[in-house]
Amino acid sequence: MHFEFPPEKRYFSIGEVAKGFGVNTSLLRFWEKSFSALKPQKKANGIRKYTHEDIQLIQLIHHLVKEKGMTIEGAKNQMARLKKGGTENVDILQKLQKIKAELEALKSQL
After folding, report:
1. Fewer CB in a 10 Å sphere around the end CB: N or C, the chain?
2. How close are the terminal C-alpha atoms of the chain, in Å?
3. Contact at 8 Å (CB) between 5 and 12?
4. What domain range is 63 assigned to?
């Protein structure tokens, strides 16, 4: 799943992000506890605000856990390997996910 977010908007609520990925807000909070790199900004009242970078990280986590069926530990290990390879690998993965979504859309139109 690829979450299209408006580039002019800087912050997204947990509800917007959950809806975009088709998951519950509780899952996003769980991932926040499980993946130390996922740290959305929190206001004084505890309301989370997700940035574009947070959403990119969630896209990667979603892909590994929900689409590839990895465990949390497996996803952490894969993310560590990707980090060692630099951000280039993450960028390539995100581009491939977008291409896959476009191809699936074309296929459904046939």
Report:
1. C
2. 20
3. yes
4. 14-109
**CB-CB neighbours of 69 under 10 Å:** 9
What Rg value do the Cα atoms of the chain yield, rounded? 14
54: CATH:
1.10.1660.10
Residue 101 lies inside a defined structural domain of this protein? yes
Closest CA to 40 of 7, 13, 22, 8: 13
The pLDDT tens digits for 50-104 are 998 999 899 889 989 998 999 999 999 988 887 776 556 667 777 777 888 888 8
Residue 85 placed within a domain: yes
Q: State the pTM of this model.
A: 0.73
Contacts of 17 (CB under 8 A, 6+ apart): 3, 28, 50, 54, 55, 58
Tokens of 94: 């995100």
Cα separation, 110 vs 101, in Å, equals: 15
Q: Let me know if residue 1 belongs to a domain.
A: no
For residue 52 the two structure tokens come to 């574009």
